[in-house]
Amino acid sequence: MPAAFRVYSLSDTAIVIDWGNTIDEAINHQVQALFQCFQQEKKDFIRDVIPAYSSITILYNPVALWKQGIENIEGYVRNFVEGVLINCTNRKEVEQPIVRIPVCYDPAVAPDLTAFCAAKNITVATLIQWHSNEIYRVFMLGFLPGFAYMGTVPESLAMPRKAQPAKQVAAGSVGIAGRQTGIYPFHSPGGWHIIGQTPEALFQQNRKQPALLQPGYRVQFVPIDIDTFYSLKQNKNTCL
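and the corresponding structure tokens:
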């Protein structure tokens, strides 16, 4: 892999490949390319492979290796990981689809919209244009099941997290924090600035792939009005 990284043990059941504490699209492309390489490895001792912004954590089962007579389990796993790294050198990430998500940018469903626009000295129409014109990359999932950390929002819309998080954020809320944007899959506390809401379900346990968005996906927001939002939301609830 081109960028510098280090490999270290996180515990006696996990090993990490780390490119540093950074949000960098080029590095995340490397992370996703390597993640796809690990997905092609069918090893019984690998429990899970978890990609993040600039790291991958490989969870493994030491008991399975011990039963195979392997004594230096950590060394064995490290050799396996380094072998995948070598074989994956210069591998390109397989391009993922663009997912278009309807979003209603209306104060009725976006409690921070008015204050956000006032802080940026822009109109709601301008915010909608800037936010929906971008195609965002899903860097990772985290915080809540199906919560996709996406970027990068235009610098003109960048805003630090709230100093005081909200006690309750509605499911489907679309927020901005720093130069990231994301959608809350469930009702939860949250410190992102809520500028819109989608009627889409970001996580459904009974779906073949419960999380609508996956690392590496590309996302574009499609503005809808408040009537369309309630109509879509009602139809989805009726189908449940």
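(Above: one complete record from the training split.) The chain has a mean pLDDT of 92.
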